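Narrative of accomplishments. A recurring question from our advisory board has been how the design workflow behaves on a single, concrete structure rather than in aggregate. To address it, we present the structure tokens for one chain from the evaluation set, followed by the sequence designed for it. No filtering or post-editing was applied between the two.
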């Protein structure tokens, strides 16, 4: 385990911003003498478990929400709350495939509220000077629409984190990187999430260090040990429960990369 412990510390030094990759090239560099600065950092298992906890809370409330009959498939794009020219706005933007509120094949719905009044519209979000551009007002149940806005305002942190983690390189410095993928990049927050793949590694001229973990989301949250992998210095090591939990509990990331 000595090689694994050494790599965990190397990851922590970089991912917490204690040092950068060039420090490893210093003549006087001694990893044993450097202490990791864990301030404002979170371990990788806690990162995913916190996301899952917030997701479960959201999913319960969303499932109980009175629904707008919008279309066959709905995906959440973003939520925003802001002031403009003295008016108070809340915007929930949804992509709708096979919509019921228009005859188009798909559309983007701006579930918009201005000073407490629901004023939604649909559009294709292309250049307004394009001949194919459209923007049309639609009628929706105002009471239910406000419930949507209230819910997504309450869980705006979840939505921000989800959009950041669903298919992204959340850390990269040219040598070290961390990637996160939810449901193989085909996730839909409103229909339910299943898996979270977290991988990180370091690429050198003469060696490869790589770790990949598949974590089940939802009520059955936990590591899928059969689909976890760790490579140290181009050599596969055994990925049992003890090893996987050791890595995920002991590799830390500065919180600024988590959302």
């Amino acid at each position: 385990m000595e090689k694994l412990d050494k790599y965990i510390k190397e990851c922590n030094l970089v991912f917490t911003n204690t040092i950068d990759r060039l420090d490893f090239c210093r003549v006087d560099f001694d990893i044993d003498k450097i202490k990791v600065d864990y301030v404002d950092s979170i371990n990788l298992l806690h990162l995913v478990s916190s996301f899952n906890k917030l997701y479960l809370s959201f999913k319960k409330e969303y499932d109980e929400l009175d629904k707008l009959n919008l279309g066959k498939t709905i995906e959440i794009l973003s939520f925003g709350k802001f002031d403009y020219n003295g008016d108070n706005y809340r915007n929930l933007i949804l992509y709708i495939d096979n919509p019921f509120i228009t005859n188009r094949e798909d559309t983007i719905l701006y579930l918009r509220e201005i000073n407490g009044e629901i004023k939604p519209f649909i559009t294709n979000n292309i250049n307004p000077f394009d001949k194919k551009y459209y923007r049309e007002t639609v009628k929706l149940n105002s009471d239910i629409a406000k419930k949507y806005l209230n819910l997504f305002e309450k869980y705006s942190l979840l939505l921000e984190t989800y959009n950041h983690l669903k298919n992204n390189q959340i850390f990269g410095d040219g040598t070290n990187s961390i990637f996160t993928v939810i449901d193989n990049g085909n996730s839909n927050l409103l229909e339910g999430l299943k898996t979270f793949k977290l991988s990180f590694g370091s690429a050198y001229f003469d060696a490869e260090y790589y770790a990949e973990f598949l974590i089940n989301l939802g009520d059955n949250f936990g590591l899928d040990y059969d689909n976890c992998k760790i490579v140290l210095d181009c050599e596969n090591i055994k990925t049992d429960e003890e090893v996987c939990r050791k890595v995920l509990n002991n590799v830390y990331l500065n919180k600024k990369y988590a959302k």
